[in-house]
Amino acid sequence: MSELRRDPLSDRWVVIAENRAGRPDQYQPASARRIVAPCPFCRGQERETPPAAATYVADGQPTTDANWQVRVVPNKYPAVRADLPAYQADSAVGETRAAIGAHEVIIESPQHLVSLSGLSDRQVELTFTAYQDRLVYWQRDDRLAYGLIFKNARAAGGASLEHTHSQLIATPSVPSEVARELACAERLLGSYGACAFCRLLDEEAATGARIVAEDEHYVALCPYASRFPYETWVLPRRHASRFEDVGRQPLQRLAHLVRELICRLEQIVSELAYNYWIHTAPWGGENYQRSYHWHLEIVPRLTRMAGFELGTGYFINPVSPEQAARRLRSASDERIPSDEAKFSVQKN
Ligand SMILES: [Zn+2]
Ligand SMILES: [Zn+2]
User: Fold this and answer.
1) How far is the CA of 300 from the centre of ligand 1 (A)?
2) Nearest ligand, CA 194
3) Which ligand is nearest to the CA of 107?
4) Segment 204-215, tens digit of pLDDT
5) DSSP H/E element including 249
6) What is the largest CA-CA distance in the chain?
7) How far does residue 31's CA lie from ligand 1's centre (Å)?
């Protein structure tokens, strides 16, 4: 049976249609072709990327090219860039602006690993620290209004290089997905008199049906109107609008939880392609401190967007979030050990 569901925090509708899960697929994806070549993100290949904007080393170690653990570099093929002159034009065919912004790559490991699940908790924590630092760094540029941290893992997740990495793109305006969430959150604050995400957490806790994991700081759940099979959100228990302000200990817990969730997802679908991104409050101006509640959204890439999704903005999801949460709760959070060996790249 199918059901239409609306997410109150984005006003987006989805179609939960479990009957579609069994339909035949004549287009099994061919395994992505890999080019065996030196990887520009591996240790020893630092000259293949622009010079680092920041490097992170193990505690107490000096920073050198030989011992970095996490490395932030400008994207070699940026979508937006900070060094453009501003211009703006408007006509009946559309509006034009210089693509001013920042586009950086956060290389999560000196070793050639393809998923966050292969990292240690400490390594994930360094990566998340880099996320915070780069967001804080780009906030000082008053031309920029928003910074999105996101990750594309594996080919179907949009990664062009398999070495585990994330990206930051900062833009002069607040992206429309975020603007939509902010508008819903403001409106719901007006009607509830409280943060809508906090209310959602209370209601989810009451049934537990969509909760995947929780600890003293965070709740991981499959959202009621999940767009994608096994879509999982991580929300802080305590109300906070900005990811950048998370302290060291809760950041350690977040690193552990996100790695654990990716491990669980990969236990269900091996070599899973996925994305995640962090939705935090916009910079400057109105800061949505009361209404907005930062969170991290993990989206496995098991379905393709097709005509209906593109034509309507509705999503069809063949796995209900209740079933997804049940399976994720019972999946083991052990790493799949073959990952590292299987994807090691031969160097010339
Ligand atoms: Zn590599
Ligand atoms: Zn809240």
Assistant:
1) 22
2) 2
3) 1
4) 999 999 999 999
5) helix 248-268
6) 62
7) 19
Question: Rounded to an integer, what distance in angstroms lies between the CA atom of residue 7 and that of residue 12?
Answer: 5
Neighbours of ion ligand 1 (CB under 5 A): 39, 41-42, 112, 163
CB 293 within 8 A of CB 240: yes
- φ, ψ for residue 317 (rounded to 5)? -120, 115
Q: Which of 170-179, 251-260, 293-302 has the lowest mean pLDDT?
A: 170-179
Distance CA 28, CA 343 (A): 21
* Centroid of ligand 1 to alpha carbon of 165 (angstroms): 10
Instruction: Check if the beta carbon of residue 226 is closer than 8 Å to that of residue 217.
Output: no
H/E segment holding residue 274: strand 274-279
Q: Kindly give the distance from the C-alpha atom of residue 108 to the centroid of ligand 2, in angstroms, as a whole number.
A: 29
Q: Which residue type sits at 9?
A: L
Average the pLDDT over 125-154 and give the result: 96
Q: Which ligand minimizes its atom distance to the CA of 240?
A: 2
